[in-house]
Amino acid sequence: MTRAGGRGDAAVTVTTVVVAFALAFVLDPLVGEPPTAAHPVAWFGKLVGALDREWTDSPTGQRLVGVGIALFAPLVPAAVAAGVVLGASYLHPLAGAAVAGLVLFTATSLRSLLELTGEVLAATEGGAEAEGDLDTARERVRGLVGRDTSALSPAELRSAAVESAAENLSDGLIATLLPFAVLAPLSLPAAAAAAAWVKGVNTLDSMLGYPSKPIGTASARLDDLVMWVPARVTAAAIAVAGADPLAVARARADARRPASPNSGWPMATLAHVLEVRLRKRDAYDLHAEADLPTLEDGRRAVALVRRAALVAVVVAVALAIALAVAVGVALVAGLEPGASLPEVGRP
């Protein structure tokens, strides 16, 4: 059985990769978040909620149970994602690409993040005099941060929203985008599985990774490990989008102030690009010599995060296409002119 068109195989690979990315990043601005009842991340959250209970009376025992949860729970969405993409690929390569794009779409979030950030900023527009609007801002910002918001000033509410926009650019987009871009040219099922696995790890950390929950200790440590590269890539994307490539270097000291080894990098870089101060009471103060963000600073932050997301997507797509072409060329080079593959059943 002769091999049909090695260069054609490469073209199909590039096409499927482009289709997967195009679907994912057209759906986000058009649709935003899927309804909760139909959202795979919400389904996984229900599984995590069922696992979040007192398995033993011992904190050590809870931590041991948490190790098992951290190791095995994210494999559930990964296996499902790989399975559905593989099944669709058997029907047609473009069907597999479309399903992989849907997986990436559900594993990322940008529009809803920026919309909620904008709502919080808008509610601070009246300043301290508009107490009703501030109550709205304090309530809405709880969808972005876990801190006590009851006594935050308008500037501190804006700071919280801006910090979250930077951090969630890493957690909600770039962390799943990177492994998908690297693996998609090799295997769309593997790329979908990696994106779903990273999203599962991040969801575990957001639900269990608190000091008060021994069962979440392993999930928090795993998330720290998984997010190490995405956080720093996000900082670089913010610096490039802000036309300030040296901002990452200036932010280095501030990036180490938050307790997390990762979240400080995108937040501190954003603070230095915008020349604003970002503060969480009794936790950290980033770029402390600047002022807390004004409403206009907050709007500039939203625009900058949107541009940084675009930078990340363009680079990821270019990387995936380059890898797809390289894989195709390698496949072609692996066969000498006129060579053929053995027929099935022949020695």
TrEMBL record:
Membrane topology, as annotated: Multi-pass membrane protein
Locations listed in the record: Cell membrane
Assigned keywords, A-Z: Cell membrane, Cobalamin biosynthesis, Membrane, Transmembrane, Transmembrane helix
Listed transmembrane segments: 12-31, 64-87, 94-114, 173-198, 308-333
Example GO molecular function: threonine-phosphate decarboxylase activity
UniProt key word Disulfide bond: no
Tree of life domain: Archaea
This protein's record includes keyword Transmembrane: yes
Pfam families hit by this protein: CobD_Cbib
Pathway: Cofactor biosynthesis; adenosylcobalamin biosynthesis
GO annotation, cellular component aspect: plasma membrane
Record family assignment: Belongs to the CobD/CbiB family.
Stated role: Converts cobyric acid to cobinamide by the addition of aminopropanol on the F carboxylic group.
PANTHER family assigned to the protein according to its UniProt record, in alphabetical order: COBALAMIN BIOSYNTHESIS PROTEIN CBIB
Record protein name field: Probable cobalamin biosynthesis protein CobD
Species per Swiss-Prot/TrEMBL record: Natronobacterium lacisalsi AJ5
